[in-house]
Write a structure and sequence with these properties.
The complex is a heterodimer of chains A (about 350) and B (about 300). With about 350 residues, chain A is α+β, with helices and mostly antiparallel strands. Chain A has helices spanning about 5-20, 25-30, 45-50, 50-55, 70-85, 90-105, 140-160, 165-170, 175-185, 265-275, 320-330; strands at about 125, 190-200, 205-215, 220-225, 230, 240-265, 280-290, 310, 315-320, 335-345. In chain A, helix 1 packs across helix 6, helix 2 (about 25-30) runs parallel beside helix 6 (about 90-105) and helix 10 (about 265-275) runs antiparallel to helix 11. The model of chain A has no long low-confidence stretch (mean pLDDT about 90). With about 300 residues, chain B is an alpha/beta fold. Chain B has 3 domains: about 25-190, P-loop containing nucleotide triphosphate hydrolases (Rossmann fold, 3-Layer(aba) Sandwich); about 195-240; about 255-300. Chain B has helices spanning about 50-60, 75-85, 100-110, 125-140, 155-165, 180-185, 195-210, 215-220, 230-240, 255-275, 280-300, and strands spanning about 65-70, 90-95, 140-145, 170-175, 185-190, 255. A 5-stranded parallel sheet of chain B has the order 2-3-4-1-5, sandwiched between helices. Classes of the chains: A alpha+beta (about 350), B alpha/beta (about 300).
Amino acid sequence: MMTLTHLIIGSTSTSLLLGTADPVILLTGAIASLMPDVDISVSPAGRLLFPISRFLESRFPHRSATHSLVASLVIACVDYPLAAAGYIPLELAHAINIGYFTGYFADVFTKSGIEMFYPSPVRCVCPGNRNLRLSTGSAPEYAVLGVFIAIAFVALSINMKGGLTVELNRFLATPTGIEQIYNTKGSDNLIMVSVEGVRAIDRQPVKAEYQLVQSHGLGFLVTDGQKIYKAGTEPDVQIISQRITGRTGQKAKTLIKTISINDEAIAPYLENLQASNIDAQIYLSGQLQLDDAEDLQIATDPQQFKTISKQQATLTLDAALLNQALPLLVEQWATGQITARIVYVQ
Amino acid sequence: MTLWLLIPGKKQQHEQPSAPTPTPEPDQFDHHQSESQPQPRPGKLYREAERQRIVAALLASSSILMAGEEGSGKTVLGEAVADDLRLQGFEVAFIEPATPKQILLELALQLGVETTTLEGKPLTIDGLKKAIANYLRTNTVFLIFDDAHVLNPQLRTWLKLLKRQGQPLLLIATDPPRTDVFLNMSALILKPLSEYMIRDLMEKTALEKSIPFKPSDFARLQQRAGGNPMLAQRCVEEEYLGLDPETGDHGRYFDITPLILLLGAVFIVIRFIALGTSNPTLYILAGSIGALTLMIGKILRAMPGDGKRIKA
């Protein structure tokens, strides 16, 4: 098989399996795909590592020991400990192994085959008919090369948009997809949610992109920066969603801070929180027993999610924006615990 | 056809097999034997252990079947066994395939058995069989039949009778059937030579032909030999002639299409797991890849297999 074919197959497989478009990772996968041919000194890898190739070619037939699962195991035994020790990134170790494996596995489809189960001397081929297998530099090999170049373009395009899972979720437009993106990327990124549906109150059509605050029941709390809405299909939603898709947004770091209040004024805690986290988005959740609940009047807007609610002396905060909660609670004394979710957008 | 026959002397016991005794006197050899002392063949034998085992078995009046694939070195080993026995002073007949009548005539000729009746009429096949069998009852001769798998059933049955009367036989056969005389004999199956031996043989062959091969050439050619010494020599010859077929003719090729189908089945199992865990993304991905893999596997299986004929 030609060097170019190996390079393309190695990088495409790495891109597909790791869901990345990082050029360093793809280049690593591509170069690793040439490494099995180190068992012959006339190959690019053999020329690069001549002492090793000289040693190997004088002892083993071509496409035997280095084209085997044993060789893959040896490579894994070297690069994964290096990754575990922090010398190389884990993704790079994955790329080396994927590239190396695809580098020799592609040769299964050539006329010579490979000793994939070395030390067993059986030579693995596919298909069994030698006339249907690939010859180096033949027209069918160029056709295979063309197919892999096309796959590489599609894979890179998908991976630059967030990966295959994200694209598939975008296509399916189901809440499960949002959950997956939120679970995998939510700790380091803002998650942006595109909602198509209608407003629950007047059935006006809605088609907009919001920032995901958090999941809530079977739906999601989303914000446009001013107000918080619940999107989904449950009875308490403000936006009945028909299609809901997600994507990773800006880099963001999330911190959690717990505040315990024991028959004290709430305002100093919240003001301190606000002062120490300027420019951060702060969402409060929890329950407080108010000393003077009768004085607290909470206005309700049916077009917004009720983030602050009161039942007798119990105040419940559910992803309430700090700048909305603070004016209400400025004169209140309470007992209880609230959790602040602080999101720093980078 | 080559046929060597050395006759050391009379057997002491006919019915019971006994250890043969060599005849040290060269002047007792009949006219078929070379005038000079037998000499071992030049060149290295890669199956020394097998040679010793076969010689020991024959000296213990046992018969043995040597089986192996085409080109695995059975004939060379058989000739080495014959040489060894001759060096020890024994008589050996090395018989190559021919028609039954030709084989029997050649055998009779080598043994010095009359092939005509008293009236001068040629003996029939049955007559030759009887005459040779009678001769072997009273003389110690090691019979080596090369390519015994092509012998006809009647001749194989006759060999079975010879074995029953205590005649040590070495049958050399390629993939012999599990029947008659082959089933009656202990079999020694020749395994492919080690890669080290194959490389050594290729280097010697190249040296003989004065071909300046590099180690990379040997490594490339060796993948077509598959542990078969005949194919190893052929690869060198092909390179020498400027022919460079990419595929070998050895029997070590293994079609992994079933493994591709197995991979497809694994993805289908993952699809069910995704169904159980309510993960539609994984369900669609695993289902799609599984279906695609199974389809590719089916197409590969539907392709015509590798033919047995040599063609482009």
